[in-house]
């Protein structure tokens, strides 16, 4: 089992896909933090509401970018595939909202820092779920 996991991680295709996935994530993470900040600071929305609004926009864009650009899945756009993707995204949203809330209201971190802390964890979970379950790549 250990050898198989090491072989998967060292695989060149895996590393390239993970780097591309992270670049997509980083670009959207920067936009995410900026929009969350604007919605919270300038429109006076509760930070969790701001976080939620951006997650909806972000999830569909990420699905499409990863389907066609990163995992090069040229199959017809599938509602089933999209729903599996959204299910994973919803799961990570719920986990990240919970942790953002705990970090912000429990540890009194600034909401923007709490959001930034969660990004790498959510990225890793979503990369693995999309690579092996959504796009079966």
Could you explain how this protein is built, in words?
With 137 residues, the protein is an all-alpha fold. 84% of the residues lie in helices and 0% in strands. It has helices at 2-10, 12-41, 47-70, 79-106, 111-134. The longest helix is centred in the first third of the chain and has 30 residues, at 12-41. The chain is elongated, with a radius of gyration of 16 Å. The relative contact order is 0.13.
Keywords for this structure?
137 residues, mainly alpha
Topology:
Blueprint: H1 2-10, H2 12-41, H3 47-70, H4 79-106, H5 111-134
Terminal residue distance: 20 Å
The major pleated sheet works out as:
none
Total helical elements: 5
- The percent of residues in helical segments reads over 70%
Global structural class? mainly alpha
In the predicted model, the low-confidence regions spanning at least 5 consecutive residues are none
Strand content: under 5%
Count every beta strand, where a strand is a DSSP E run of 2 or more residues.
0
Radius of gyration: 16 Å
Element order: H for helix, E for strand? HHHHH
Mean pLDDT: 85
Coarse shape: elongated
């Amino acid at each position: 089992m250990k050898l198989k996991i090491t072989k998967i991680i060292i695989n060149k295709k895996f590393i390239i896909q993970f780097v591309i996935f992270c670049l997509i994530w980083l670009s959207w993470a920067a936009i995410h933090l900026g929009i969350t900040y604007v919605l919270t600071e300038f429109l006076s929305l509760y930070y969790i509401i701001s976080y939620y609004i951006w997650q909806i926009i972000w999830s569909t864009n990420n699905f499409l970018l990863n389907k066609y650009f990163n995992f090069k899945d040229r199959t017809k756009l599938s509602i089933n595939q999209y729903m599996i993707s959204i299910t994973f995204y919803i799961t990570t949203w719920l986990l990240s909202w919970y942790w953002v809330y705990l970090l912000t209201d429990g540890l009194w971190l600034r909401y923007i820092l709490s959001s930034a802390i969660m990004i790498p964890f959510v990225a890793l979970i979503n990369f693995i779920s999309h690579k092996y379950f959504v796009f079966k790549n």
